[in-house]
Amino acid sequence: MHNGTTITQFIIEEQRHIQGASGDFTSLLNDIITAIKVISNVVNKGALIGVMGSAGSENVQGETQKELDVITNEIFIKSNEWAGHLAAMASEEMDDVYPIPAQYPRGKYLLVFDPLDGSSNVDVNISVGTIFSILRCPGECATHPSAQAFLQPGVQQVCAGYALYGSSTMLVLTSGHGVNGFTLDRDIGEFILTHPNMTIPADTKEFAINASNQRFWEPPVQRYVEEALAGKTGPRGKDFNMRWVASMVAEVHRILMRGGIFMYPKDTKDPAKAGKLRLLYEANPMSFIVEQAGGASSTGRERILDVQPDGLHQRVPVILGSKNEVETVISYHKD
Ligand code: AHG
Ligand code: MN
Ligand code: MN
Fold first, then answer.
1. pTM attached to this predicted model
2. pLDDT per residue over 1-36, tens digit each?
3. Any atom of ligand 1 within 6 Å of the Cβ of 252
4. Domain count across the chain
5. Which of 14, 216, 306, 330 lies 20 to 30 A from 57 at CA?
6. Which 8-state DSSP code applies to residue 63?
């Protein structure tokens, strides 16, 4: 039995500090929270409700869609299209922008999301998540929302968050005043503030990278990992530990809880791709959260939040986590 702060209470109280806030944003977040609760339930029921396996289709990036990729995308759209806060949505699972249908009012925000991150893990019952980012709709975009309206650098995000469907379901949020974590109490159907003011320790001895790509990495990342592996007697003078969940949400959550560095760097595997992760709905929201928690996030050459997007599904190299360790990797890029 707890008597904690519910997420709705938290958002309303936070909104009181923002001058001119109309309640629109609170209401939008509430719809996102509803979507996340529905997704949590569907992911949790899994094979019991016949939602596992492949959907037999591909997304715009040529990745095979899981049944759950398609279902969770639909859940997000249905929860968020009706209320009048959004002009349009965009997601990993849709080729183009989804303008709010004509029968609903349009609002001043844009929502971009990865409905199911780490979906290759879903069939094996390993943690997956949802990532989202809220942007303002610039100019007259509410009448004609185009892909162009979404191409804003990450510094312009109004809010970013992720849900982690792990051993418990958590929601971690920032709207530019620190990072707070909420845990879903299934019995009462509410997210309760359990992790106020999350911060990332500046130092770490834990790194995360898909080492099967090693031969494709650039020299700075080769050097960083080689030195970490050399341990106490190597140039870094400390032993490192390694983790790779293959769900970015789980990886970032671990880093928020105990520090660490996560890398999906630029590689030469497919020269047409600058990295694997997508800027608008993976790298930007996660970078906003990580920076707000005192960590750092970079491509190796540039702060991710400063990257000017040139496409809805643009990819970007990602190096994020404990500040001093990310700085080390950046410095190797300068050498
Ligand atoms: P998604 O399931 O949304 O396509 O994203 C998966 C991403 C990310 O969550 C994870 O860090 C990375 O892909 C894992 O990639 P590898 O399979 O190359 O390890
Ligand atoms: Mn993803
Ligand atoms: Mn996904």
1. 0.97
2. 567 999 999 998 888 877 667 788 899 999 999 999
3. no
4. 2
5. 216
6. P
31 and 118 inside one domain: yes
Atom of ligand 1 nearest to the CA of 114: 3
Going from the Cα of 130 to the center of ligand 2, the distance in angstroms, rounded, reads 8
Around ion ligand 3, residues with a beta carbon closer than 5 Å are 92, 114, 116-117
Cα(68) to centroid of ligand 3, in Å?
A: 9
Residue 56 C-alpha to ligand 1 middle, in angstroms? 19
CA dist 332 and 31 (Å) reads 43
Answer yes or no: are the C-beta atoms of 260 and 326 closer than 8 Å: no
* Amino acid in position 85: H
Q: For the domain that residue 158 is a member of, what is the CATH number?
A: 3.30.540.10
Residue nearest to atom 17 of ligand 1 (CA): 246
Cα(306)–Cα(288) distance, integer angstroms: 11
Residue of 68, 121, 73 whose CA lies nearest to 95: 73
